[in-house]
Amino acid sequence: METKNVKECYELLKNKECELIDVRSPEEHIEGRINFISKNLPLDEIKSWMKDLDKSKKYIIYCRSGGRSSFACQVLNDNGFNIINLSGGIMSWISEDLEITSN
């Protein structure tokens, strides 16, 4: 498992080198999400959605501030996935003045 900062993750996403997973609740996801295509796969359902991920792909995992995503990354890493934790979550993304999308 790796942890990368906002600028590093932004470059990976811009270059389509990773897929983005938001492990926050659906309500949090609707309120605002990183402005790249992301899957909302809540942490409390990780055991059910983990089996549907492709182990040949690389994923960036994020939450609000990094706690839930860190836990999710550990679980996914332990199960053989190629995972990057976005350090500081969406709050660090916002603090870098990068775009978010909301409904």
Compact description:
By secondary structure, the chain is α/β, with parallel strands linked by helices. It is built from five helices and seven strands; from the N terminus they run βαβαββαβαβαβ. Helix 4 (67-78) links the parallel strand 5 (58-62) and strand 6.
Describe the protein:
The strands form two sheets. The chain has a five-stranded parallel sheet with strand order 1-6-5-2-4. A two-stranded antiparallel ribbon has the order 3-7. It is globular and about 35 Å long. The model has no long low-confidence stretch (mean pLDDT 96). The chain is built from five helices and seven strands, in the order βαβαββαβαβαβ. The longest helix has 12 residues, at 67-78. It has one domain (2-101): Oxidized Rhodanese, domain 1 (3-Layer(aba) Sandwich), CATH 3.40.250. Helix content is 37%, strand content 23%. It is α/β, with parallel strands linked by helices. Helix 4 (67-78) links the parallel strand 5 (58-62) and strand 6.
